Amino acid sequence: MPSMHERIQEDLKLKERQLWTALTSADPAHAVNKLCSPNANLIFPNKDIIALNPDQPEQNEKTLQEALAPPFHRFDDFSLMNVRPMVIDLMAGTITYRISAYRGKKEYNATGSTTWAQGSDGEWRIVAHQETLL
C-alpha cells in the first residue's frame, strides 16, 4: 500500500495534468476556474498577474475568460517532464516541471510550478501557478 506522501504526490500529478488539459483547450476559463481556490494567483508569460477575488467569486470566471481568451495556450499536444511533486503537509503540495507543447510548427517551452491546497471538501485546488518561458 502506498504511503500517504506517495498518494498525495500522485494526486498532485493528476491535478497538474488536469490543469494543462484545461489550459490547452479551446476555451479554458471554466475548467481552470473550477480547479482554482477563490483567491488563487496565476502568473503566465507576458501577462499581468491574474489574482482571483474570494469576495467576488462570480467575477473570477469572467476575469479568467478575459485573461485566457483564445488563442491562449491553444496547443495540439503537451508533455510534462522532470515532474517533481513536493508534499508541504497533508493538505498542501507544490509541483514543479518542464512543459513542452506545440501547435502546428509553433513550440512552447517553459518551466512551471503550481501550489495546491486541499479544501474541506477533499478537492485539490490551485493556490498559485507560475510559468517561465525558456
What does this structure look like?
This protein is of the alpha+beta class and 134 residues long. It has one domain (4-133): Nuclear Transport Factor 2, Chain: A (Roll), CATH 3.10.450. It is 28% helix and 43% strand. The protein contains three helices and six strands; from the N terminus they run ααββαββββ. Strands 2-1-6-5-4-3 form a six-stranded mixed β-sheet. Strand 3 (77-89) and strand 4 form a beta hairpin. Helix 1 packs antiparallel against helix 2 and helix 2 (29-35) packs across helix 3 (57-67). The longest helix is centred in the first third of the chain and has 20 residues, at 4-23. The radius of gyration is 15 Å and the shape is globular. It starts with a helix and ends with a strand. The mean pLDDT is 94. This is DUF4440 domain-containing protein. InterPro entries: DUF4440 (IPR027843), NTF2-like_dom_sf (IPR032710). It holds the Pfam family DUF4440.
How many beta strands in the DSSP annotation?
A: 6
Return the CATH class: Alpha Beta
Topology order in helix (H) and strand (E) letters: HHEEHEEEE
Query: Residue-averaged pLDDT, rounded?
Result: 94
Q: Biggest β-sheet, characterized?
A: 6 strands, mixed
Domain module tally: 1
The oligomeric status of these chains comes to single chain
Helix content: 25-40%
At CATH level 2, the architecture is: Roll
Low-confidence stretches: none
Rg computed from alpha carbons, rounded to a whole number of angstroms: 15 Å
Order of adjacent strands in the largest pleated sheet: 2-1-6-5-4-3
- Please work out how many helical segments DSSP would assign: 3
**Amino-to-carboxy terminus distance:** 38 Å
Report the portion of residues in β strands: 35-45%
Protein name: DUF4440 domain-containing protein
InterPro entries: DUF4440, NTF2-like_dom_sf
Domain DUF4440: 15-126
Pfam families: DUF4440
